[in-house]
Each structure stands twice: as structure tokens, then as C-alpha cells.
Amino acid sequence: MATSGKQHTRLGEQAWNKMSKVNAEFFALTYGAMVMQLVQDFEDTAAVNAQLDTMGYNIGVRLIDEFLAKSGTGACADLRDTAETIAKVAFKMFLGVVAEVANWNADGTAFSVVLYDNPLIEFVELPPQHCELLYSNVLCGVIRGALEMVQMKVECRFARDVLRGDDLNEIRVELKEVLAEQMDDQYFEGM
Amino acid sequence: MIVCLAVISKANAPLLVRTYVDPSLGEDQADTTIRFHHIVHTSLDVVQEARAGDRHVPACRRWCAATRDMFLGHLCPMDEYEVYGYVTSTQVKILAVLEETVTSRKSELAALLHTIHGFYVNYQLNPFSPLNQPIGSERFKLAVDRQVNGYNADIG
Amino acid sequence: MIFNFYIFNRNGKCLFYKEWNRPQNTLQHDDGEEKRLMFGMLYSLQELVGKMGGGDGKGALQSFTTDSYTLNFFETASGLRFVLNTDNRAGDLTAILRHIYGNIFVDLVVKHPMFEPKAGVPLQLPMFEEELEKYMKSLPCFV
């Protein structure tokens, strides 16, 4: 187990070195401006959270191919492998930070991705009137979208958030079902 | 020691005024604040003058020649206090009102105001920070307080 | 010699088809039928190959050869299937399919803002076609 963890870390490093970089402040400010626009457009915080999740989902369904093609990881053997890959390879590759996997449930169908360092929130301080806002909810959407493309239906939510006063960021990922291959209608004509 | 620190917007509206007066002296907090608001407000005229005196310098170089140049130094005495100023390239002023029992070292004060300028920049980078409105951020206030108290402790 | 090239999505929709050399075409009358048969055949073959091999069959099928052509196959974990038909002298083309996926498809299709990953509509992206064309023609096994 320890060796496979190291291997993930190494893959993450390699992928990170290959990626083209963008200025962290530019990235954080762009994301901030977008969130602010959503906050202004939708009065309801829950709607903003949902919108961020949807955006993330749309990113995730694309990002998966970039990830598979450039990270050098193959299909994951099991959910533990998937979790490590997300935390050590994907987060490193796209955000430049390493996350930890923790809090497995008894059945091994749910885990947490723990982020000590979140580049999205570098300058952010939530004002009291937005205390329900899940500022980084886009990350949940990305994970959900990306996993759906590899046939894993998951539920994903922020369990702990530094911006809301917790000591670290924790994204809870729960596997709901493994999707079956679904053939297009055109293959059922003759039946 | 620093008894008041103020951040003033380009349009001369106060964004943040923090006072550091020993409450045991018996003055009402609200009175103290009003008194310093008044001092700060009056000092702004001096900042204006300092700027006017610079007219012969090309506008582009007037305020942003070098980082340290944003420190205006001693502006004026005001009642029993001394006022020091700092102006950013975007015309945000940071004023420090000092009660000078011993002569303060200018370089330390300049460094302090420079640090607070840094905090202000970080505050502005928060997407939730409103522009040109009083600063409500607890993080910013805490950082400023810590910095000023540290400075006062060193002097005292 | 490279004959033709398909990209299928997970549900068997043909996202892209291109042919360079096709001396004879017995399925000319129905374009959709051919793609359907192609995907169906691969799908069944993958299942069979997987069952015979004892695993889940992922990545087991890479190519097969008949008298007149070799079919090269590459499936991604996201369910995309790349199929490249060549003559029997082209050699192992796995690396080429990976390159098409990783460097051409991902950069010019997946990152294209108009591309909808889940819609399964045929691609109409001239940049991608051009780049693919250029790459294919640069290959020593192209002619």
C-alpha cells in the first residue's frame, strides 16, 4: 500500500511538470470574479452552490480525457486506487497541491479528499452574509463529472471548509453506483 | 507609540480607523474614535499639500518612483500627536497618529506602513471586498492590530 | 498503408470517420450501417477476448489481422474507442493511437468550447481534421 502511494505521488509530480502553468494570483482572482458574479446574479446561496457544482461537472467531463491522456495513469483497479489517483495525481496535476485520502467508511464506498492547501481560496475571506456559500464547490463538480465519465456515479460535497471556520478542507466522495455500459438506441433497432 | 492608524480611500473617505488608546485612561471609546477621525481628517489637507508641492515632478513619477517613496514621512503635529503619512500609487492613504514620548525611528515606521499596505493589497484581492467602502474584514483588522501592537511593544 | 479511422464514444456513437485509402467498399450503400457493425463487432469481440482472458477485458484487445487488413484498437478509460485500419505491413500502431488521443483529440476536441462530451454528436471541427490529416500523412506507414 505504501509503495503504491509513492507511485501515485511520483506520477503526480511528473504530470505536474508536464503541464503548462498559469499565474496563481490570476487564477485565484479569475475564479473569485466568477464566483462574485454568480453571487450577484443568484440571490439564493444554495443556487450559487448548485451553479458552481454544475460548472465543475462540465469541466470534469472534459478534464477526464486531459487527465487520462497526460497523467499516464490507466484504468483504476478499485475505488482505493481511484481515491489515491484523485488526491495524489489529479490534484497535483491541475492545482499543484497534494491532497490526502482519509475517512473511509466501513464498506469502502465513501472516502474523503483532504486538502490542506487550496489555491482557490488564497485571498478569500467570506463575509458573514455569505457564510453558507461553498466557495470551492466547483471542485466537487469536477470530481463528480470526471468520475461519471469513467462510469462511477458519485455524490460529492464539501464536508469541511477552511472558509467556514474549519481547520482544513474536506471533500466527501460517496460512490453511488458503477454505471453499466449503455449502448445507443441504434443498436436496439432489430430487437 | 501609535495611537491611531487610518486607511483612507482615494476620495478621502475613511476605510478603516483603528485606535490604540489604553482604555484605563477613562475616555469613552466613541469619543476617542471621533477625536481621531477629526485628527485624521484634518491631516488629509497636509497630504494634499504634500502632493501639490510635488507638481514640478512629472505626474507619472510623483507617487510611484520607488516603494519607499510612498512613505511621506512626518506630515504635521496635531494637538499632542504627530502624524505620519503613506500614499500608494492608487492614492490610498495610510496615516499613523503617534504619541511621541521618544523620537520614533522613521525607517521602522516606513516598514510598518509598507507592511500594512501589503495587507491592504491582499484585502483587495478578496473577491468579496467591496471597493471604496469601509473595511469590514476581521482578518485585515486583526493583521493591522497585530502589526501595530508589535510596533508599540518594541517602542515601549 | 492507412485505410480509415473511426472514433466511437462509450455508447457506440461514431464521433468521427475519415478514410484515406479504400480500394473497395462493399458497404457503400449504408454509411451508418457500417459504423454500427464495426462498433458492434468490436464490442462483442472485446467481451469475448475479456472472458477468454479471465479479466474484465479492458485493454486486452489491441489489434487483429485478417488477410487483407489490420485493425488497430485503443480504448480509453473514459470509454472513447479509436479504430485505425491499415494494411498488414504497418506494424504496431498503439503509440500512434495514443498520440492521436493525447495530443490531437484532447487538445483540439476536448478543449474546444463547443464540444459536448456527453452529447455524442459527430465532430465538425476543421482544426482537428487538419491536424489529424497532417499527422497521418507524416507517418511512414501512410502510403
From TrEMBL, chain A:
GO terms for cellular component: endoplasmic reticulum; Golgi apparatus; TRAPP complex. Keywords: Endoplasmic reticulum, ER-Golgi transport, Golgi apparatus, Transport. InterPro entries: Bet3 (IPR016721), NO_sig/Golgi_transp_ligand-bd (IPR024096), TRAPP_component (IPR007194). It holds the Pfam family TRAPP. It comes from the Eukaryota. GO terms for biological process: Golgi vesicle transport; macroautophagy. SUPFAM superfamilies: Ligand-binding domain in the NO signalling and Golgi transport. It is found in: Endoplasmic reticulum; Golgi apparatus, cis-Golgi network. Belongs to the TRAPP small subunits family. BET3 subfamily. Homodimer. PANTHER family: TRAFFICKING PROTEIN PARTICLE COMPLEX SUBUNIT 3. May play a role in vesicular transport from endoplasmic reticulum to Golgi. This is Trafficking protein particle complex subunit.
TrEMBL record, chain B:
Pfam families: Sedlin_N. InterPro entries: Longin-like_dom_sf (IPR011012), Sedlin (IPR006722), TRAPPC2L (IPR044760). It comes from the Eukaryota. One of its GO terms (biological process) is endoplasmic reticulum to Golgi vesicle-mediated transport. GO terms for cellular component: cytoplasm. SUPFAM superfamilies: SNARE-like (SSF64356). Belongs to the TRAPP small subunits family. Sedlin subfamily. This is Trafficking protein particle complex subunit 2-like protein. It comes from Tribonema minus.
From TrEMBL, chain C:
CDD domains: TRAPPC1_MUM2. GO terms for cellular component: endoplasmic reticulum; Golgi apparatus; TRAPP complex. Signal peptide: none annotated. InterPro entries: Longin-like_dom_sf (IPR011012), TRAPPC (IPR007233). It is found in: Endoplasmic reticulum; Golgi apparatus, cis-Golgi network. Transmembrane segments: none annotated. GO terms for biological process: endoplasmic reticulum to Golgi vesicle-mediated transport. Keywords: Endoplasmic reticulum, ER-Golgi transport, Golgi apparatus, Transport. Belongs to the TRAPP small subunits family. BET5 subfamily. PANTHER family: TRAFFICKING PROTEIN PARTICLE COMPLEX SUBUNIT, TRAFFICKING PROTEIN PARTICLE COMPLEX SUBUNIT 1. This is Trafficking protein particle complex subunit. It comes from Tribonema minus.
